[in-house]
From TrEMBL:
A GO cellular component entry from the record: cytoplasm
GO biological process: cysteine biosynthetic process via cystathionine; transsulfuration
EC number: 2.5.1.48
Enzyme's top EC category: transferase
Cofactor: pyridoxal 5'-phosphate
Protein name, UniProt field: Cystathionine gamma-synthase
Modified residues annotated as N6-(pyridoxal phosphate)lysine in this record: 199
Matches recorded under Pfam families: Cys_Met_Meta_PP
Keywords, ordered alphabetically: Pyridoxal phosphate
Family classification: Belongs to the trans-sulfuration enzymes family.
Stored NCBIfam families: PRK07811.1
Length: 379
């Protein structure tokens, strides 16, 4: 029987400990494992860079909730991205990237991989003809983020999977903003789902981590080889915290969405707000696609304000319950100015963000308190 999302999040890869019956996988704070004679590994464990039982539990749970063949857990989202890109690309290859994405992902392409010999072209992913035209014989991947950070643009995963596969490339979807509860890219044809598990999967702003989940076991195996060979693995305590967060992802996401919808209503009616960016709005250009491929529309809300950059920064500074800080996806609400904070590394690039933009990660506090704080900050 196919189990539901919450059942998988709580049980997949997390059978009670065979020795003690502990219902939660223990933190295996260990680097190496006793062998029963040379090469006689117990349950396959040899050295914790290669595999560690706490990390295995997280990796199996992530694979289950994304509906993938293989899950791999990394030290950060960017470590996962780097490992993926240096597995599917070699120097001389090319990647199509979005013209709106997390600034650190753009920095990885523009400052690290370019020097390593991988070229890239930013393309508006909503324009399928433009994406098709950007695919070259040496294109190894189309990189998708949907919804995007910070403009909440939406890309059609199923259509882009066809474009990628027609061109002999893999389709990679950074699923951080939606989380596997709201969107399952592999079921729509993507080859790899990428996560900064630092965000909704971890959910409590207490751990940095990343993940890759593949549709095919084959690609999973190649990535696992590189994960071990390159070494950017999640440590056991980080894996354990992430796994604890994952168990409540479904209930948290529903509350994030409930609260975000109320915040959107408030912003829409506020005279100082020029534009609200949220895929749940019928006027959002990606609304129909989002409605098709997402369960709900998420907890991230961006908006543009009258008065330009200074006004946007002021709002960020005035908020109290919305904590001024980078990152997102935790139970507590955060506010930030992408131009000066998370996306400063995209300044002057095709991925530069508007200066009058404010980004909210709407948490799961009592919604009336959030609305009061935001009204106060907006002035
Ligand atoms: C959409 C997205 N992808 C990837 C990352 C990178 O993840 P990490 O900070 O865990 O390295 C982030 C971080 O903010 C992100 O927002």
């Amino acid at each position: 029987m196919n189990q539901g999302f919450e059942t998988l999040a709580i049980h997949a890869g997390q059978e009670a400990d065979p020795h003690t019956g502990a219902v939660v996988p223990p933190i295996y704070a260990v680097s190496t494992y006793k062998q029963d004679g040379v090469g006689g590994l117990r349950a396959g464990y040899e050295y914790s860079r290669s595999a560690n039982p706490t990390r295995t539990a997280l990796e199996e749970a992530l694979a289950a909730v994304e509906g993938g063949a293989r899950g791999l857990a990394f030290a950060s989202g960017l470590a996962a991205e780097d490992t993926l890109l240096r597995t599917v690309c070699k120097p001389g290859d090319h990647v199509v990237i979005p013209d709106d994405a997390y600034g650190g992902t753009y920095r990885l392409f523009s400052r690290v991989l370019r020097e390593w010999g991988v070229s890239f072209d930013p393309v508006p992913l909503g324009d399928l003809d433009a994406v098709r035209a950007a695919v070259r014989p040496d294109t190894k991947a189309i990189w998708v983020e949907t919804p995007t950070n910070p403009l909440l643009n939406v890309a059609d995963i199923a259509a882009l999977a066809d474009v990628a596969h027609d061109g002999g490339a893999v389709l990679v979807v950074d699923n951080t903003f939606a989380s596997p509860y709201l969107q399952q890219p592999l079921s729509l044809g993507a080859d790899v789902a990428v996560h900064s598990t630092t965000k909704y999967v971890g959910g409590h702003s207490d751990v940095v981590g990343g993940a890759l989940v593949t549709r095919s076991a084959d690609l999973g195996e190649r990535l696992a080889y590189h994960q071990n060979a390159m070494g950017a693995v999640a440590g056991p305590f980080d894996a354990w915290l992430t796994l604890r967060g994952l168990k409540t992802l479904g209930v948290r996401m529903d509350r994030h969405c409930d609260n975000a919808e109320r915040v959107v209503d408030l912003l829409l009616s506020h005279p100082k707000v020029v534009q609200v960016l949220y895929p749940g709005l019928p006027e959002h250009p990606g609304h129909e696609i989002a409605a098709k491929q997402m369960r709900r529309f998420g907890g991230m809300v961006s908006f543009r304000v009258e008065g330009g950059e200074e006004a946007a920064v002021e709002i960020c500074n005035r908020a109290k319950l919305f904590t001024l800080g980078e990152s997102l996806g935790g139970v507590e609400s955060l506010i930030e100015h992408p131009g000066r904070m998370t996306h400063a590394s995209a300044a002057g690039s095709p991925l530069e963000v508007p200066a009058d933009l404010v980004r909210l990660s709407v948490g799961i506090e009592t919604v009336d308190d959030l609305l009061a704080d935001l009204s106060e900050a907006l002035g």
